[in-house]
Amino acid sequence: xxxxxxxxxxxxxxxxxxxxxxxxxxxxxxxxxxxxxxxxxxxxxxxxxxxxxxxxxxxxxxxxxxxxxxxxxxxxxxxxxxxxxxxxxxxxxxxxxxxxxxxxxxxxxxxxxxxxxxxxxxxxxxxxxxxxxxxxxxxxxxx
Length: 143
Prior knowledge:
Blueprint: H1 9-15, E1 22-25, E2 29-33, E3 43-47, H2 59-65, H3 69-79, E4 85-89, E5 105-110, H4 129-140
Antiparallel strand pairs: 1-2, 2-3, 3-5, 4-5
């Protein structure tokens, strides 16, 4: 586990220095319950390599670590038959509310009437075709 860092909470969990409620583990990833339990079954999946966030992933990292997303999501759904949906999210950087600077994916099971609201905003009224095209072109140029 030479790819881990000393002072990272999730690296400590991977090394077994901090206890966790592990639900899945293999050579690539570890998935464990988020202590906040936004809804029952709220799980985090972390790569067993210290990667700060998705901006630092290579294509190889993505293939190696993110392939487990469907498997973990389906295990949670099977464990809770009344799950009707799931938010699968990552907070990528401090401005996006990333607290632990080790890449992690949240699996938040959703139940009818659970009352959970993930806040977004709709700014469509501030954009026209020219502005959408300008933004799309800026991104396209980066590939």
